[in-house]
Design a protein that fits this description.
Layout: H1 4-19, H2 31-47, H3 51-54, H4 61-70, E1 76-80, H5 84-92, E2 95-100, H6 103-115, E3 121-125, E4 129-130, E5 155-156, H7 158-162, E6 172-177, H8 182-189, E7 193-202, H9 210-216, E8 221-229, E9 235-243
Parallel strand pairs: 1-2, 1-6, 2-3, 6-7
Antiparallel strand pairs: 4-5, 7-9, 8-9
């Protein structure tokens, strides 16, 4: 039986999310996607499941569709922040390196990988430390190594952001920045992307990530942004930067 109160609440949630989008990002909304994925999104809110259980990235539906079109089994992926995306990439890519700051969450993801018999993922844990390497307290700065989450106030994600430094330049076909201290992660990650590779910045509409976009606004990079519905959540913007 359809619960009309629940359905109405979900529609209202969608409309409220649309109204809250800043005008500068509205051109990246694909309204056909809102219609195409509304039913699936509505179901996800009521399902009680999670991206980890569903083995999908916590990206917009449009971003996930675009990702499926560009990824192949010859690719190597690096991601800041593990989760459903880790299992997704393990299926569609050759090899995945994932860096996580939360050891409890990393153990949950590791358990999912083991249960599924997945062996092409290197999951590393880099917990935040004291702020000794934190040059700036501005979370938008490339050299702050700081998180906007107040739970990590005064802590540095220097080792976390530097994890990709262990790999030579031009090592990865796809790099996902979807974890902590994203501007600092970008500082270390950009040179590690192969020519013709893709840098993915999730939640790209957040103001302290705008400096990343500004740094990439050159002829070397082509952007494709998807502002829209997200499984198990509401609205965000998943940003693809193609190193052409």
């Amino acid at each position: 039986m359809i619960n009309f109160n629940t359905e109405f609440a979900i529609v209202r949630k969608c409309l409220s999310g649309l109204r809250s989008i800043e005008p500068k990002w509205r051109r990246y909304i694909y309204y056909t996607d809102l219609l195409r994925y509304f039913s699936e999104w509505s179901h996800s809110l009521k399902s009680g499941a999670s991206p980890l259980q569903m083995r999908i990235p916590w990206f917009t539906y449009g971003g996930i569709r675009f990702l499926r079109n560009i990824i192949n089994k010859e690719m190597t992926v690096f991601e800041y922040g593990c989760g459903g995306s880790t299992l997704f990439f393990s299926e569609y890519a050759k090899h995945v390196v994932s860096v996580e700051h939360d050891i409890i969450w990393a153990n949950m993801v590791n358990n999912s990988l083991k249960v599924s018999g997945i062996s092409n993922v290197d999951l590393q844990v880099k917990i935040p430390e004291s702020h000794s390497n934190q040059i700036s307290t501005d979370i938008a700065s490339f050299i702050s190594y700081a998180s906007s989450d107040i739970r990590y106030s005064g802590q540095s994600f220097y080792e976390y952001a530097c994890a990709i430094d262990a790999y030579p330049d031009s090592s990865f076909d796809i790099i996902v920045i979807d974890g902590r201290a994203r501007p600092s992660c970008f500082k270390h990650a950009s040179s590690k992307l192969k020519p013709n590779g893709y840098l993915i910045i999730d939640n790209g509409e957040i103001s302290h990530y705008w400096q990343i976009h500004d740094a990439l606004e050159t002829e070397e990079w082509e952007k494709r942004f998807f502002y829209g519905l997200v499984p198990f959540a509401q609205f965000t913007m998943t940003c693809f930067w193609h190193h052409r």
